[in-house]
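Reference record
================
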Amino acid sequence: MPHSASAKKRLRQSIVRRDRNRAIKSEIKTSIRKVLDALSNKDVSAAQELFRTVAKKTDQAASSRTIHRNKAARIKSRLSARILKASQSAAG
């Protein structure tokens, strides 16, 4: 346990930041899961709409450095590739 006043404050700050970061990461994972569920149900239009929210949340998390910007790009790239593949198979 921290003894000095500054160390106590740092502990309080880190707990608040940890909870905030966990909530943001959990939201991202949940929204990714929703996109993948829509794709598994062959609902490409819903997946595209949900993808917009994923892209927004990952960009916001990357800008606040909750996640790395390359991870945000990787998430968006992989999901958009899956959506594109699903839309091509549905059209063809």
Remarks:
- The chain has a mean pLDDT of 96.
- The first helix runs from residue 5 to 40.
- Residues 5-91 form a domain with the Methane Monooxygenase Hydroxylase; Chain G, domain 1 fold (CATH 1.20.58.110).
